[in-house]
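Incident log, support desk, overnight shift.

02:14 A customer reports that sequence design results differ from what the structure should imply. Their input is reproduced verbatim below. On-call engineer (initials T.W.) acknowledged and began investigating.
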């Protein structure tokens, strides 16, 4: 199927072409005709499957674009509001459909002014209900969209959403999107939608099969070492590291920077401007690692995230699915890696069962593993390397002291030294251990208390660890530039080389 099959208005089709969309995704294929026909829908689809276009295109198709506010899209976070608004602006550009965003932490007066000029409003529930209640905006939209409804519920917005609907006209088309369908969401659907068509993408389609998922088992104190080793081994092009707590985000971001990565943290305690800056840098290739909490990274759409790392597992499968959905976007391949301690086995089992896809258990690569992989990629790099005229003089100088083969060996050893792999050789558990330990964990039932107390204990451990108890190699690593590829990690020079790296 092609987008041209929807018979969209010319100005809309032009925008779809400009966006480079050719084939609709499954959710788009199912939702677009139904919404164009005027039906309410409840659609269940995973993040990264193209929901924005699934509601944006048919709404724009049916909008008059007469300068009034015709559509409202409600989303859980500020970042998502900006992102959805950008995407809708792209589609509505040739129709003159302006978009405006409404979210907390930004000036009221400016937002109100923009709202008055917009055809589509993209809003977070809190600020939107404020504006409606204080009669600061008066609107009567024909289309209301709830995007990521389950997320909004998790964030405690359910009552706000119900109240928002008391301000919406009865004569309207309502569309609801959610990755999961817990009971309260189903109940909400019953009250705010009229005879909706249910669109469910089957389980195998829900979880993005382009994402390779694996987990590694370590002890609590090994998490940092494990993450570093995995970075060394996988050499991710662009990655997000998820932590449960804000203080882990801050600590880990600082630590990664000390190891020579360009990394920054993203969490809810940061100022809006700071958060926007970090996201922009990450999208613009100025950052290679983003360390984030679940809330901060919800719905984040960065196309070329090659790896997602779970520094800790989330407690439940929903956030897990949302986290890994940050990679493998728009048909690309992605890798999702979880670092798991035995205390997290219950969460792991639950996630495995709910997600329904294979999460493969793996063993953290040893120093030898990393070295052989580095060697292979070094060979490739050398083959692709062009000879720089400037080095000729340098070689001539060396030739005064050594013959050519000695020079070659010396240079190769020098590179080898630069690529030293830090940390102890064996980190984490063997496959046999993992299998044994997992077999002893019963899923669900009882033990909830134990889990909780373990959680607390883990939290305490985190603090100790950052106190400098890692021992491993003390200040050595933080000497600056990880050495590995000669401080060449900055994107500017080696972009092509970096891009051509194999992603595993
Ligand atoms: P979701 O809301 O389901 O998480 P998005 O609407 O954010 O997904 O879409 C994810 C990414 O895929 C966006 O960058 C979007 O531009 C892109 N995309 C969506 N639909 C298509 C399509 N049919 N063809 C190519 N890219 C698409
Ligand atoms: Mg979305």
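02:41 Re-run completed on a clean worker. Output:
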């Amino acid at each position: 199927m092609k987008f041209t099959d929807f018979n969209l208005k010319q100005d809309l089709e032009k925008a779809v072409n400009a966006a480079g969309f050719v084939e609709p995704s499954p959710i788009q294929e199912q939702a677009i005709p139904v919404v164009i026909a005027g039906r309410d829908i409840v659609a269940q689809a995973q993040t990264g499957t193209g929901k924005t276009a699934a509601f944006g295109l048919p709404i724009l198709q049916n909008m008059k674009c007469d300068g009034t506010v015709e559509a409202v899209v409600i989303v859980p976070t500020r970042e998502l509001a900006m992102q959805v608004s950008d995407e809708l602006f792209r589609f509505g550009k040739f129709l003159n459909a302006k978009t405006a965003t409404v979210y907390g932490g930004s000036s009221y007066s400016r937002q109100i002014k923009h709202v008055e000029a917009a055809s589509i409003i993209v809003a977070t529930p809190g600020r939107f209900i404020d504006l409606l209640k204080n009669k600061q905006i008066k609107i009567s939209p024909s289309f209301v969209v709830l995007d990521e409804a389950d997320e909004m519920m998790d964030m405690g917005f359910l009552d706000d959403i119900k109240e928002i609907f008391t301000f919406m006209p009865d004569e309207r088309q309502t569309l609801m999107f959610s990755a999961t369908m817990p009971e309260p969401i189903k109940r909400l659907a019953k009250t705010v939608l009229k005879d909706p068509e249910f669109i469910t993408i089957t389980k195998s389609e829900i979880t993005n099969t382009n994402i390779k998922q694996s987990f590694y088992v370590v002890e609590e104190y090994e998490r940092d070492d494990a993450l570093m080793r995995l970075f060394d081994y996988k050499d991710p092009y662009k990655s997000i590291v998820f932590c449960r707590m804000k203080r882990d985000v801050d600590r880990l971001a600082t630590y990664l920077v000390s190891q020579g990565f360009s990394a920054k943290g993203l969490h809810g305690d940061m100022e809006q401007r700071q958060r926007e800056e970090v996201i922009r840098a990450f999208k613009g290739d100025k950052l290679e690692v983003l360390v984030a909490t679940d809330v901060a990274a919800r719905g984040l759409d960065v196309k070329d995230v090659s790896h997602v790392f779970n520094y800790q597992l989330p407690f439940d499968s929903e956030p897990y699915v949302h986290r890994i959905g940050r990679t493998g976007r728009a048909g690309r391949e992605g890798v999702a890696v979880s670092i798991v301690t035995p205390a997290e086995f219950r969460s792991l089992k639950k996630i495995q069962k709910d997600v329904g896809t294979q999460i493969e258990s793996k063993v953290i690569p040893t120093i030898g593993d990393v070295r052989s992989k580095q060697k292979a990629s070094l060979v490739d790099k050398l083959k692709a390397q062009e000879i720089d005229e400037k080095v000729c003089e340098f070689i001539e100088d060396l030739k005064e002291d050594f013959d050519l083969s000695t020079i070659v060996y010396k240079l190769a050893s020098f590179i080898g030294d630069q690529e030293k792999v830090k940390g102890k050789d064996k980190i984490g558990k063997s496959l046999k251990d993992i299998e044994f330990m997992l077999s002893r964990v019963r899923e669900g039932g009882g033990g909830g208390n134990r889990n909780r107390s373990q959680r607390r204990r883990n939290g305490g451990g985190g603090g100790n660890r950052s106190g400098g108890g890692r021992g491993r190699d003390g200040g050595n690593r933080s000497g600056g530039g990880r050495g590995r590829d000669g401080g060449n990690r900055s994107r500017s020079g080696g972009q092509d080389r970096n891009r051509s790296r194999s992603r595993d």
